[in-house]
Amino acid sequence: MVFIESSELLNISAQSLAYIVLGGFVVAFSTVSVLAKDKFFVNEVVLGTAFGVAVGPYGCGIFDPHSWGSSTQTVTLEVMRIVLAIGLFIIGVELPGPYMARHAKGLLFMVVPTMAIGWVTVAGVLRALFPGLNFVSCLAVAACLTPTDPIICAAIVGGKFAVKHVPLNLRQILSAESAANDGLAYPFLSISIYLTVESSKRVAFEKWLIIGCLYQVIMGVVIGAVLGLAFSWLMKRSLRRGFIDRESYVAQYLALAFLTIGIVSTIGSDDLLAAFAAGNALSWDEHFNSQTEDELFATVIDRVLNCACFVYIGAWLRFDTFNDPSLGISLIRLTVFFIAILVLRRIPSILLLYKWIPEISSWQEALFSGHFVGAVFISTLALTRLPEPRYPPETQQELLATTLQPIVSFVVLGSIIIHGLSIPFFSMGRNVSRTLSRSTRDVPEWMFWINQRGAVYKDEEKSRKPDLDLEERLEYESRAEIVPASGGSSTPRVVHSPEAQ
């Protein structure tokens, strides 16, 4: 009889546990995704992060990215790069036609001044709460927190709840802006890093202008756009000659995204902005969209990657670093910092500028628009350009390298939690606003209840117009007029103008 020891068969490794954890969550979430998203309005962002924390080093201890040693930063950087690049590519493809050209004014105001104001504001708050960091180091940390996160944004504005309650123009501008400003975080980060590591400010600004702006951003956009346009032309010619099938069209979601980030990251340009530009250029004439409009491949891949990404982030978070008095880090300071940037980072500038943004029609929409996975990528990228963190740090560069990710990861965690409640909160605010608006009618509310037989109620109007969506119904009801009683009736009537019907 042959005796086989279990150690000869079992192969428990970090890789196999990672596959179990990531695959297990995707399977579990997929079985209840409609219930979670449409009933409880909780998406994969919040649930994935919570699951990652549960199986991570502060939970069951099954999945710990930090146990991989020196390769942890590299793995984290590449995981975030792939997830963000594919997400940005898909956003670029799914924007309708030449959206970026038609809405250039609104995007310009939403991206450039909003990012610049938020960058300086966050740095100022950091300087006040963490006096050990000089202002340049604070600018480096703030650069990681300046862009909105396209993955979280897509999860928020792409759900069924958002489709019903958030106007299409607002959803599109938020998606485009989140994609654009995630790539444009490079110049903000590069000037901060150059000022930190270079002894001469002149050299720092020269490198920032030539490398940070021209080579990384402009070159990245140009290469991405050229790749997108070239492959769009190539695929149309191949289709006319019968050289390409529908499945190959759909495969471009992954293939061209990987090709773009591979080429652009190899030459050291902005690969995230290049991926977005490639996706937008590929669908510029909407031919690619027409060939893939009934396919769910991109949505499936995006969902799987997002789930895996946030599980990874949940396990990656280091809760013990949130309280380190020797570095001036405490939970109270981090909480105050998070609340401050939540209020000050985008909301004031959006409220100030929204009148110049045609896609935002009211201050309520501006407030919603002011409401980070991108921060994890940018902060990890920053660490690759800084000295190896030491404890205790001896120089300002070492202090920045040591405190960067604890601050950023806390804000990421808080942002994930807050963004998970954004859509229901926005809807509640609109319902309250509608309730208040009813109370301002010229005719008191009680007059509508005097004689129900002669009055037309909102519920009746709603039942008469079952085919109206929320936005159309709001417009329909806003045209209601109070008509004085006539024909022997003592009850005023609610009527609608013919154009409303």
From TrEMBL:
Its main location: membrane. Residues 480-501 are annotated as: Disordered. One of its GO terms (biological process) is regulation of membrane potential. Signal peptide: none annotated. Pfam families: Na_H_Exchanger (PF00999). The keyword Cell inner membrane does not apply. Belongs to the fungal Na(+)/H(+) exchanger family. GO terms for molecular function: sodium:proton antiporter activity. It comes from the Eukaryota. The lineage of its organism: Eukaryota, Fungi, Dikarya, Basidiomycota, Agaricomycotina. It is found in: Membrane. It is a multi-pass membrane protein. The chain crosses the membrane at residues 16-35, 40-59, 79-95, 107-126, 209-234, 254-278, 326-345, 366-387, 407-428. Keywords: Antiport, Ion transport, Membrane, Sodium, Sodium transport, Transmembrane, Transmembrane helix, Transport. It comes from Armillaria solidipes. One of its GO terms (cellular component) is plasma membrane. This is Sodium/hydrogen exchanger. Residues 31-426 form the Cation/H+ exchanger transmembrane domain.
